[in-house]
Amino acid sequence: MFDRALLHARQRRALAQGPVTFLLDRVAEDMSDRLAAVMREFHAPADLWTPGEGLAALRTRLPAIARIAPDAAAAETLPFAPESLDLVVSALALQFVNDLPGVLAQIRRALKPDGLLLAAMIGGDSLTELRQAFAAAEAECEGGVSPRVAPFADLRDIGALLQRAGFALPVTDVDRVVVRYGNAFALMQDLRRMGAANVLIERRRTPTRRATLLRMADIYTERFADADGRIRATFDIIWLSGWAPHASQQQPLKPGSAKASLAEAVKKAGET
């Protein structure tokens, strides 16, 4: 689905030109807070594919953290030995993975028992406004629609994938960020400087017509502008965490092991 070699090149270009990092900065701050709530020291942590220096602030808390940067070969095979890590973190990278179930399974194998995965990725309804505006403009001006915005996993998908990969105590939640811009072109410029422009393999390879771009911007403003004329752009940051299984972790009760009847409890509550 994704041309990861192109993604790598665009991320390097964005870093050289001066990246736009407000989403990454938000994630880094939140990740630091979430790790501070985990009452544990980590001695073998790794940062997986976070773009640029996005999680540099974690080095104070995790001086031994190993950074695994994206490479030009676009490989999704992780360089981790089994049970070699006690923490894997990743910020705004997993949304560009072609085989997310496979990568999660590799992370799970790399974690020591009771090791933690904590990651944030773009998902849900992110950039739904841009997707709708481009689709309407292309249908109107060109009589067809081409892939412009990548499909994103939703919260339930990610939770199911964590369970499928064998993580214990999986948790997911979403942080919705709505950013306002003067126009759609300012949003698209920020996406380029995030290294997050269209890298779909099935993307259109010819330049977009000027008339289509102008109509897209008009439709965006018509549908998604506030009273002051500024447009909205939605980013859903999906947080996911899970632990490598360990005997010390809380276990679900076996079916039929309950000592009290739910029906009886409801009946008593009604009488009260």
TrEMBL record:
Domain Methyltransferase type: start-end pairs: 72-118
GO molecular function, one term: S-adenosylmethionine-dependent methyltransferase activity
GO term, biological process aspect, one: methylation
Coiled-coil region(s): none
Kinase as UniProt keyword: no
Region Disordered, annotated ranges: 248-272
InterPro entries found in the cross-reference section: Malonyl-ACP_OMT (IPR050602), Methyltransf_11 (IPR013216), SAM-dependent_MTases_sf (IPR029063)
Keywords assigned by UniProt, alphabetized: Methyltransferase, Transferase
Cytoplasm is among the record's keywords: no
Signal peptide region: none
Annotated protein name in UniProt: Methyltransferase domain-containing protein
Lineage of origin: Bacteria, Pseudomonadati, Pseudomonadota, Alphaproteobacteria, Hyphomicrobiales
